[in-house]
Amino acid sequence: MTSYWLSEPSPPRPQAHVDEPEVVVVGGGVTGCAAALRLAEAGKRVRLYDGRGIAEGASGRNGGFALRGMPAAFDVTTESVGDESARAMMAWTERAIDTIESLAGDSFRRVGSLRLAVDEEERHELRTEYEALVAAGFGAEWIETFEPPLEGRFAAALHHPPDGVLQPARWVRRLAALASEAGVEIREHTRVASLDELDGATVVVCTDGYPSGLLGEIEGLIIPTRGQVIATEPVPERLFEVPHYGRHGFDYWHQAEDGRIVAGGFRDVSFDSEFTADEQLTEPVQNALHRFVNDLMGRELRVDFAWAGIFGMVMDFLPVVGRVPGLDNAWVAGGYSGHGNVLGFACGELVATAVLGENEPLLPDFDPVRLLNVD
Ligand SMILES: Cc1cc2nc3c(=O)[nH]c(=O)nc-3n(C[C@H](O)[C@H](O)[C@H](O)COP(=O)(O)OP(=O)(O)OC[C@H]3O[C@@H](n4cnc5c(N)ncnc54)[C@H](O)[C@@H]3O)c2cc1C
Predict the structure, then answer these.
(1) For the chain, which residues make up each domain, given as ranges?
(2) Which end of the chain has less Cβ packing within 10 Å, N or C?
């Protein structure tokens, strides 16, 4: 049940103390740390709480993929929000990857990502996205020939050059250290039970899929969803430098720096039971992951780490950023539908900007109030 990423020791962090915080951030993952850093840099007195340690939610339990764009394909996002907004969102996440690269040091490798098609139907979908990306002026490459072990398994692939791969726990701990240096007081292992205990400070809830109990009318509308991951014994050959994902993202894998194959997904083997906030591992998903990796490698590999985490699903595949409906002085950023490494960072900065009173053109599409209008 240990996340491979979190098994790396956490380096010491400078300690800051804040009297009478103006802003309280709830959640010590990528979103909360990015928001807290931005607010402190703007001169606010900020305190951040997490019921666990920094990065011990989804931010230290994920696949490590750092992907541009929204959770839905670029052409699908274009259909839902229109050309101009979809382009703005894509460019905004590409800029966020640039910022991550400038801050993350050795926790980020900018190697691109490979979105694979398992059959003709998925090939057609990827080709449509590829053409939309190129037409809109974004970098993308179309691939039809593969080397082993991918050869014969996939119909085609879409390479996204701006993407990369993170050691996500190392990255978010680093971001937390930057926030501390900027003056943010971080209180770990302290759960916030109610907004009333925060003495009227502005509150920013950054808990993505983990139920916080702080979101009033929209509590539960960012749907807790479990993802499970394994990391094998180190493998000497380097085969998957780039993050690979196929079957609409239901399978994803890559190779960590020390050679381990990190593979996640297969939620669809027991789809309904994975809509839960319980971090328990389950046999059907774990067996499917192990079988998949053995099949890919053509030999039995030992599984050294297996873990689960919770992410927040939103049915329109757009993040949720803005004021919490019906509450005074409470804001939210979350709901990345399994795509939160880059989007969480970008939305943490975005919600901070909104709290500071700056007008951001992306905010109307992410308005939390829309969750109340969904059947
Ligand atoms: C298995 C898995 C694989 C994934 N793979 C990828 C991937 O490869 N690429 C990608 O982009 N995204 C991926 N994601 C999604 C991504 O990890 C998340 O969207 C992102 O980390 C969310 O970050 P966050 O800071 O918003 O929330 P989290 O990192 O989940 O942090 C929320 C924190 O809030 C705390 N909290 C909740 N309620 C309270 C309270 N009342 N008081 C105090 N603290 C509270 C929790 O303890 C938790 O630590 C994956 C997610 C999972 C679970």
Answers:
(1) 1-8+19-109+165-219+316-375, 113-161, 223-313
(2) C
How far CA 108 is from CA of 140, 224, 244, 350, in Å, comes to 20, 27, 16, 22
Q: Which residue has the tokens 């449509």?
A: 128
**Each residue of 310-337: pLDDT tens digit?**
999 999 999 999 999 999 899 999 999 9
- Residue 152, judged by CB atoms within 10 A of its CB (0-12, 13-18, 19+), counts as exposed
Question: 1-8+19-109+165-219+316-375 belongs to which CATH class?
Answer: alpha beta
Using CB distances shorter than 6 Å, the residues near ligand 1 are 26-32, 49-52, 56-59, 61-65, 67, 191-192, 206-208, 210, 212-214, 227, 229, 264, 309-311, 334, 336, 338-342, 344
Q: At what angle do helices 340-355 and 83-104 cross, to 10 degrees?
A: 100
Confidence of residue 374 (pLDDT cuts 50, 70, 90): confident
Tokens of 324: 């919490």
pTM: 0.98
1-8+19-109+165-219+316-375 and 223-313 in the same fold: no
What's the CATH number for 223-313?
Answer: 3.30.9.10
